[in-house]
Amino acid sequence: MRSVAGQVFLLQSVIMVLFAAAAGGALVVQARESSTQEARQLSKGVAQSFARAPGTLDAMKSGDPTELLQPRAEDTRKNSGVDYVVTFDPQGFRWTHPDPKLIGKHIYAVREGGAADRPFTKTFEGSLGLAVDTTVPVYDTNGITIVGFVSVGVTVASVDDVVMDQLPQLLGFAGGALAVAAGGTALVSWRLRRQTRGLDPSEMTRMYEHHDAVLHAVREGVLIIGSDGRLLLANDEARRLLDLPADAEERRVTDLGLEAGTAELLGSGRPVTDVVHLAGDRLLAVNVRPVDPDDRPAGSVATLRDTTELRALAGRAEVARERLGLLYEAGVRIGTTLDVVRTAQELAEVAVPRFADTATVDLLDPILRGAVAAGPGPEMRRVAVHGVDGARSLYPVGELIRFVPSSPAAVGAERGRGVLDVDLTASGGWMSAQDPHRARRVLDLGFHSLITVPLQARGVVLGMASFWRSDGAPFGREDLAFAEELAARAAVAIDNARRFTREHTLAESLQRSLLPGSLPDHSAVEVAHRYLPALEGVGGDWFDVIPLPGARVALVVGDVVGHGLHAAATMGRLRTAVHNFSALDLPPDELLGHLDELVARIDSDENEERDSESVAGATCLYAIYDPASGKCCLSRSGHPEPALVHPDGTVEFVRVPGSPPLGLGGAEPFETAEVTLPEGSRLVFYTDGLVEDRERGIDAGLEALRHALAGAGRTPEETCRDVLDALLPARSSDDIALLVARTRLLDRSRVAEWEVPGDPAAVAGIRAEVTGRLVAWGLEELAFTTELIVSELVTNAIRYGIEPIRLRVLRDGDSLICEVADGSSTSPHLRRAAITDEGGRGLFLVARFARRWGTRYLARGKVIWTEQSTRSPAVEPEEVSAEDLLDQWEDAAW
């Protein structure tokens, strides 16, 4: 019992004994009260029930109430558990009683303790112990006269019996509680001895003294504060850090003269971790923890650390971390596009506001064009300004600045290193020399520090970047090193953009030179076109309108897969080849066949000579339109089908048989489609860049094109504008070529046709009819030469050709066209005739008097055609010398 645990166990034992005694007494009182109450309720209930039971009143009024009531009274007593049921008359003589000997005896003191005219209950001590009796009057039918009384009694059971039944449970509970208390005490005693390692009080005292010495020797302040905000303990380090007075203990923390924030934090007791507070000239990291883990008001412990020097080091480390993060961000944000100006703007946006308040970028003019500057010159063009409102006072974007030799830009460009001006107000002489008025405005707006760094990549100075500060501390040497690193990274991105600009400019110039500068006016069609190169670089899209003999016109559009110089050069080769093949007046399917062979041969030759890009993937759509008949013949190789807008505004896509792209070496021949176009129809040729991109499939693009083309009454120029407004993507990844041709038909009055019989004698009549038609057209001056041409061509067709033979004369603008068709597939060509030859000079005369002539082949037969100008005077035969007539060419077989 000397130990704390033993004393606690003794106290618990006494408490449990007292608790058991109190519980037993309470149980006795509760049992007595409960039994008495239950007896009263039972007695009253049985008495009232018996008095009001049917037959009770009649039995009492009968001649022998005992005979009728005694059996019923005994049955009620036995069934209800009461001790007796007694009935008696108003004079007090019993009618019933459990003991028959007492029947007829008089009852004394019936009304003692209650009125006779209403029920009453009384408790009394009888021979059987405590009992409860209830007497209920029975009234006659008039409710006034009392006929008799019913008295029911119940004996209250002995309270000692009830208590004795529950006393074992009470004692068992008390014993169990004592056993648990003893076990808990033993466990606590064992844990205390284990935690104190079996130390006795003297040893515990020595340990406390040791801990007290350590507490005052540590280099961290420790404060113990009570729940009322009073300082209970402060070690030596805490007194030094907070400069506490000698009598600080037992005083409130708020009365120690500390900073208001520090005193409030220490006195609040709320848990905090490493909250920095200023105490004099020191920065203290404060930690507060409550003493009681259940958050009851039991005080708190605060620890203090001097972080003044650590804070300075952490500040420098934080600045270095932010600078590294800014360099990483610069690597991500600068150079997102291959545009020189946009890259310069990204440099200025990255630097502001995390490094400077305003940033400007100036570049040499040749850099903007993609060229390489001969050296750092004094003139640069401002391409980016980003920063505070005062940035408007600097040179604006687009202005050409000539820097004075003493300016930081000129000095930095000459030395190839950054220049730091810590205080512009002290070193602003160069600003006055550069622009005095602007210098005053810059200083008035608060700009006080400047770093100017050359943008230098691969040993070439591209321009200068300037960083200005109007707020905060001026720039330092560390800032200069960072600015040089930032500018070096940006310079590489700007140089990459410059190189791309140079290549893009060269490729675009090459492509523009290879594309038609303007399309020729033609009586067959009215055309409009658009060409838009991709943002990533020029590609191989192209288009052309080629006049053909017989007032016909060829419409062509193509696409070479890829971008850059190779795609542009390949496009030029294909366009030239198409022109050459068109000069042979080949049908569309034959022309694409020759073009396919050419592309395959070029691929083979280039792959053998050098490992270069191939042309495979080129597509082409070629169409020939004849305004005399309104027929259009089309063929395509891997190209999208053209759209046809009818005069009423409806749109359809012309079904042209598809073939693989050019150069893939397909064995199948190209196929053609022929459609008849009403006058005023619009043929729309385009490349896939118009209807397909990364965000839109070709089906959706074609449907959008259909909606954009729908509608009547628009010119080709208006059609091009509406189509591009509806379909042009915000950022095109492929070239777009668009060609719109509105068809025309030749006036039938300007076309004359004759069927020529196979008799040479019919030639004279044909000549006369042709002359008459020329007179009607007002072309009498061409009659002689035309008669000569017609006579020669028709005669040769009759002599060497195969029927049927047809002659057609057309007037198309300033041209007069003669065409002779026959069923033979042989073609004439010029040859030199000998002096002794009697013939063979007719074809030479045709070539001499016509502006041009040629042959084109039909599905069956051929057409020999000539074209004369109606503007220039005709060449008369007399102008030809005899020597020329004798020493010329002979005709070949037809």
Automatic annotation (TrEMBL):
Q: Main localisation, per the record?
A: membrane
GO biological process entries: phosphorelay signal transduction system
SMART domains listed in its UniProt record: GAF, PP2C_SIG
Q: Which residues form the GAF domain?
A: 362-504
Q: Which residues form the PPM-type phosphatase domain?
A: 522-743
Lineage: superkingdom: Bacteria
What keywords sit in the KW lines? Answer: ATP-binding, Cell membrane, Hydrolase, Kinase, Membrane, Nucleotide-binding, Phosphoprotein, Transferase, Transmembrane, Transmembrane helix, Two-component regulatory system
Q: Name one Pfam family in it.
A: GAF
In the UniProt record, does the keyword Phosphoprotein occur? yes
Show the GO cellular component annotation of the record.
plasma membrane
Topology versus the membrane: Multi-pass membrane protein
- CDD domains per the UniProt record, alphabetical: HATPase_RsbW-like
User: Where does the secretion signal sit in this chain?
Assistant: none
Localization annotation: Cell membrane
Q: Does the keyword Transcription regulation apply?
A: no
GO terms, molecular function: ATP binding; kinase activity; phosphatase activity
Cross-referenced PANTHER family: STAGE II SPORULATION PROTEIN E, STAGE II SPORULATION PROTEIN E-RELATED
Q: What is this protein called?
A: Serine phosphatase RsbU (Regulator of sigma subunit)/PAS domain-containing protein/anti-sigma regulatory factor (Ser/Thr protein kinase)
